[in-house]
Design brief:
The structure is a single chain. With 394 residues, the chain is mainly β. It is built from three helices and 31 strands. The chain has a 20-stranded mixed beta sheet that branches.
Length: 394
């Protein structure tokens, strides 16, 4: 039989372990336990906000858990910095925006992560319920601008994995002023008629990686804004949508440039554009350089390869001017498939600052079972490899 002293010593040994495990358990915050309702009708905004407050205040890695169900949320701002750099949103359910688009329509962002470091968003569905706002805009009524579904601002070391965003009012996911962001297995869905519903938008950010994702929307699948550097996009399916676009750039005279962008192993189906660079037709200090578009498959794409430096919507604030954005060192390599129009390669560069270092390597684009055409203005570069598309660069 154990002596009373040995039993006491054993108990003192086990107590710290049990106490430590209880602390570990408390670093997971289930939103149901904080008052969230999973019926999609009652407001769960406070519960999510409280979960974030607790996770952010914790000095230990923390998880915010959203179980199965539909959770109605108004606008939320997840503000940093936090006391730890390992907060995970584990979402098994659906986060639901209000059906009345006016509730969040002028907020800018529905869900915003601001100045955070080391946040992971895993799984789940974000439903922006944007169809009613799209209809309002189509009818040309007095409508709010609409909210971005998920904004990541001035943050770093972010991972978004296995997330689905549907029917955003405006952009689905936006990275603004961020460092080291990785998106993988993301699905984005919206009607091809939905206005300004860019899938993923990146600006003023460095070290963003987008992998293994499927985007179907009414605007650009991925749009790249000023100040983007070291962007990697790989294994993305785009369609419907307006393609993968750098720009529009050059709207402002004092504007940061875009450089070191790679887009590879991508598929476009029934899109307006494939790979595009678009700049305003007016003076700017902006630039685009060191860009590679590689291993792209085009299926019935209207404009598979396009540079448009004459962008001037509604002919306002730019008629008669030329783009100041300088485009240099852009490579199109191993691009094949079918164009929905006869001219598959359209390079319309600035007459003040012609495009330099444009390289077409192994481009195979056809229109109605014959080689597609190309059109170039103020574009200089080289053509190499097997080119089935007629070349306009000498």
């Amino acid at each position: 039989m154990e002596s009373p002293l040995s039993i006491l010593l054993l108990g003192l040994t086990i107590l710290p372990i049990v106490f430590h495990q209880s602390l570990a358990i408390k670093t997971t915050f289930n939103v149901l336990e904080l008052g969230a309702k999973s019926d999609g009708k009652l407001d769960s905004t406070f519960a999510l906000s409280e979960a974030w407050s607790r996770a952010c205040a914790s000095t230990k890695p923390s998880t915010i858990y959203v179980p199965r169900g539909r959770f109605l949320l108004k606008t939320l701002r997840f503000k940093g910095p936090c006391n730890n750099k390992a907060i995970t949103f584990s979402i098994d359910g659906t986060l639901l925006a209000p059906s009345d688009y006016n509730a969040i329509g002028n907020a800018g962002n529905w869900l915003l992560f601001d100045e955070v470091d080391g946040v992971t968003i895993r799984g789940g569905i974000l439903d922006g319920q944007g169809a009613a706002l799209w209809a309002c805009k189509k009818s040309r009524k007095n409508c709010p601008t609409g909210a971005t579904t998920l904004g990541i601002s001035k943050s770093k070391n972010i991972e978004i994995r296995g997330l689905t965003s549907v029917n955003s009012q405006m952009f689905h996911i936006v990275m603004n002023g961020c460092q080291n962001v990785r998106l993988g297995g993301v699905k984005i869905l919206a009607s091809r008629e939905s206005p300004n519903t860019d899938g993923i938008h990146v600006q003023l950010s460095t070290g963003v990686t987008i992998l293994n994702s499927n985007i179907a929307t009414g605007d650009d699948c991925v749009s790249v804004g000023p100040g983007t550097t070291n962007l990697w996009i790989e294994n993305v399916f785009c369609g419907p949508g307006h393609g993968i676009s750098i720009g529009s750039l050059g709207k402002d005279y004092e504007e940061a440039g875009v450089q070191n962008v790679t887009v590879t192993s991508v598929v476009f189906k029934d899109t307006q554009n494939g790979v595009r660079i678009k700049t305003w037709g007016r003076p700017s200090k902006g630039f685009v350089r060191n860009v590679v578009f590689a291993r792209a498959i085009m299926n019935n794409v209207k404009n598979p390869i396009v540079i448009d430096q004459n962008y001037c919507p509604n002919n306002k604030n730019c008629p008669g001017q030329v783009s100041g954005v300088r485009i240099n060192d852009v490579t199109y390599r191993d691009i094949e498939g079918t164009s929905a129009t006869e001219v598959a390669v359209k390079l319309e560069c600035s007459k003040a600052y012609p495009c330099r270092g444009i390289r077409l390597q192994n481009v195979h684009l056809s229109y109605k079972n014959r080689p597609a055409q190309s059109s170039c203005t103020n574009a200089a570069g080289s053509v190499s490899g097997l080119i089935e598309t007629s070349s306009c660069m000498l």
